[in-house]
Write a structure and sequence with these properties.
This protein is an alpha+beta fold. The protein contains 15 helices and four strands.
Amino acid sequence: MSRTTGAAGVVGAAAKGSPRTRSYEVATHWQLMWWKFRRHHMAIVGLSVLGIFLVISLVPEFLAPYRAHTRDLRYAQGPPMGIHFFDSTGTFHARPFVYGWKSERDPVTLRRITTVDESKLYPMQWFVKAEPYKLFKLFDTDIHLFGVEGSKVHLFGTDQIGRDVFSRTIYATRTSLSIGFIGVMIAFVLGLTFGGISGYVGGMMDLVVMRVVEFIRSIPTLPLWLALAAALPRDWSATQVYIAVTVILAMIGWTHLARRVRGKLLALREEDFVLAARLSGCSHVRIIGRHMLPSFMSYLIVDLTISFPYIILAETALSFLGLGMREPAVSWGVLLFSAQNVRSLVLMPWLLIPGLFVIVAVLAFNFVGDGARDAADPYAK
């Protein structure tokens, strides 16, 4: 091969580029964001955890062995049952099992205690028939993911009146995450609306909206929550309290997004593409919705992701203090409310297990938010 031919080949290869280079050159902004996001390993882990929580919230009736209010009075205040593969003699069992239990009296305190009975083994069963329920509120069925025959299984133990903590935690996942989702959506709409009007219109409208935002943000958050939640009538049903708490949290949480949207629109409303759209006869709503907001939509998604932990922690705190969701509703905060005294912590420390779900959910949202924030600018190093 001559020197001329070799040089031409190199130039042609450089011009053609590798497949990876060509894919980056023609990729959309959202594709670049996703490629950068998936390189953030903790964000991928957080997204996987949130996917698990989503599945749990969709089918808690199938995943939980019992209903949220089903009681096992014989095992009240019972500790978590461990799942075993080896029995007391060291024999391996291919199917996992739980030991039986027996109730005794503490000779000192005379309190009834539950002890493990290693002479009884109950193998775990999959897709067992138990309490009937409506799957997706549509289909009648009685199939549950797991259970045991001849006894009951309580993976997280039971509370003071014998309700299964594992089942209640599974049901609480739906309530807490739905409050976070609905609350964030309402706050997102309010923040976009008022922030967009303030930043685009300006003038007196900007002055009024920003003074309202500053007034809300100047009030201490916790006293404001307590005041609004305490104003709820005590005779309201669980559904009414659920809706009220969601709206309260949304009405407080929209101010952060409104300020960010206002700042972005103030910077964009004098740009050339906005002026061109205005000269083309576009309406104000179209200019904001089709031209200005999409230009920083990636940052809005980051803000949306980070807002979820805020709403979830707010609901948990209110319910823990007894001012938010309350029985017979089931949420993570309601479950933790029963573990707020020293006696419960000493006798039944497993009642704090729902708190681990709160921690994992908040961390997962934060990891996803970190990854989304980094991916929002895919061209940065």
